[in-house]
Amino acid sequence: MPQLLTANRLIDGRVLYWRGGGWVENLDEAEGFTDAAVADTALAAAKEFVARNLVVNPYLFEVKDGRPVKEREIIRAAGPSVRTDLGKQAKYGSTGTTSPAAPERDDDVSI
Amino acid sequence: MYRYDEFDARFVAERTEQFRFQVQRRLNGELTEDQFKPLRLMNGLYLQLHAYMLRIAVPYGTLSARQLRKLAEIARKYDKGYGHFTTRQNMQFNWPKLKDVPDILAELATVEMHCIQTSGNCIRNVTADHFAGAAADEIEDPRPVAELIRQWSSLHPEFSFLPRKFKIAVIAAPHDRAALRYHDAAVEIVKNDEGRTGYRVWVGGGMGRTPYLAYVVGDFVEKPDLLGFLEAIMRVYNENGRRDNIFKARIKILAHSIGEDEMRERVLREFQEIKTSGYLQVPDEERARIAAYFAPPDFERLTDEALPTDGDLGRWIVNNVTPHKQPGYAVATISLKPIGGVPGDISADQLDAVAQLMDDFGLTEIRASHEQNLVLPHVRQKDLPAVFARLQVLGLATPNAGLITDIICCPGLDYCDLANARSIPVAQEIAKRFADLDRQEDIGELKIKMSGCINACGHHHAGHIGILGVDKKGVEYYQLLLGGSAAEDASIGEIMGPGFGEHEIADAVERVVDVYLKLRRPGERFLDTYRRLGMEPFKNVAYGEQLHAAH
Amino acid sequence: MLIKNNLPAEDTYVTVADDAPLPDGAVVVSLKRFRAERSDLLARNQKLGIVLDSDQSPEALGSDLDRLSLVVLEFPKFRDGRPFSWARILRTRLKFTGEIRARGDFLYDQIAFLKRVGVDAFELPPSITPELFARALTEMTNVYQPSADGRTTIVAMR
Question: Where do the Nitrite/Sulfite reductase ferredoxin-like domain residues begin and end (chain B) (predicted)?
Fold first, then answer.
């Protein structure tokens, strides 16, 4: 199963995904790894960001058809299922779709 | 309510700056996450699924209108316009940024609030009966004792790196509204045969992976001795609690592995040692000084009114209003469990509006209950109709206190990093099933408590009906427990059997409740019927068609 | 770096491994070695210290404590809070007046607590400078509870 790489940003705790040596906030823009060795290399690179105190707790998780397999990752990627007006789902729309809902006001801090 | 003096104010202000320095060192890399984590937890800051979560202490659940307004302001300025009341009388914000937290703490300090020891392996925020000072059945207000313990435990140099967290509750009434026996330690204010007031001290309760009920280690601790006695308990725990396995580190494991007699002996031996070498005896004047802050408001001389019992107002009064010890007054519960809402959540606008209501009706304090509701402790009975009307406009007049839709529920997998399953949507589904008030009133007192993981923040072991979310290969399942209670008849719920799927659990609860309605004797609550009949009749129906399906 | 009584100090003790020969002068040995070679160690008439691991209570030392001039409290992990109780017991119950030294994995943020329970010497990691050490003691002006440091509590100041 393909894998994505995720972490939380240190300064504000927001969920991030790995893409091309850096981080994006939207799971739909994340880089998928089909090769475990490539995934591990990315994870090692992500740990550099830990050492630089930019992110915490990077790890890999599985996706199927672009959607996380585990409920936990579905919710992390979207926001609280009981508050669809909040979190990434409000900013980017549901995972796997391309029609974003009205963005919520959020001055996210970038790395 | 308690007011900070110059010492308290300076303490909280300095603690804020201490945390600011910790955050600064974390951000510039002088502290690793591993080092910072216990430090931030000791100030109530978690890293959850979507963001950080900040847990603000509401000591013994007491808040002023001014404090509510500050919470509303913080919710708007630093968060997303709402907060969440927890099962330990605290308030949580779900979206603060690490860089903002020192400023939030500074704002809290302006209204005598803080996040000190709302998490971490230390003595946590002390809870108390949410009807304190108003309940007709109390010996005295338990909050001065809770405040005394709060101060004594704040940045305790010896007990800030315990094997695990340590939660203390204080009550002073025969009716336990604070889940006393589920606490690591608890203080029950009692009168002895000579009519003197002292403390019965309990130890070893807890929920989580291995639930236990506390037992008594001190039958009658004299008033000046309380902190010395607690110090003895804490030292026995700090020295002997397990540190090799986080799941066995709570005092409940120590207390129940060495047993009641041995625990008593160790605590008493330690207390004797403490007495010999000189110890902290709380002088009468200090206890009186603190107690004076909790003096009851100047009650008017009123007489009890004939309160309506029908119509919307009557139903709210029947379900949400409790007798007060003062004639002409009442205790009103503001339910934070609207049908289909998130249990315990409150918006910034509602916080402000409740503060305004308090001002308009001369109410100086409000309480957060461990059941995740708010309580107005001293309402004039004649004001009840107007208070109710105001709450209706605010969406805060749900007349379900103590009924089946008044569900205790942790944030679960919608927010929590530790959760295995979502809990809020299940609570919402169950509440919708039982939304009909006639049906709720017919069912009567039935406490559903739900947790999204084994850690049991939603008190599932103590629910008449408990629900525990579990994870099976990334899919949510729900176990049903029956027969728990957190009241004076405390008991630990029993697991029924295999779990239910997300779309089966509400059906199962409904079947269990229906069989209760069929089998109950007059006057029996669900819990009573369960205790009389046991699990079998409920288990026989709960699985319905799925009885033999593989789970 | 060793800080003693709030100031940088020279470490006059040598900590000796259990199987190493004893050098001349003040030494620190493990509790295990102290028990095995008790009479020889006491007969040296040199300053003697012992190391207590975090699971070793000082209460077992009994009257031997009078013959010791230093007790080193070892922190295997900063989260292990037992040494805080050992220090408190050493000072308050056992009336130990010698040096109590913190060694191992403790944090800047624990220094003030350690000082309060009776620790008077610290083997600081390089990350904690003497300036930082001094700062740690000034973060909180007042205290709510009595401990081994004899400080006047807020209750008493009211």
Answer: 52-109, 342-392
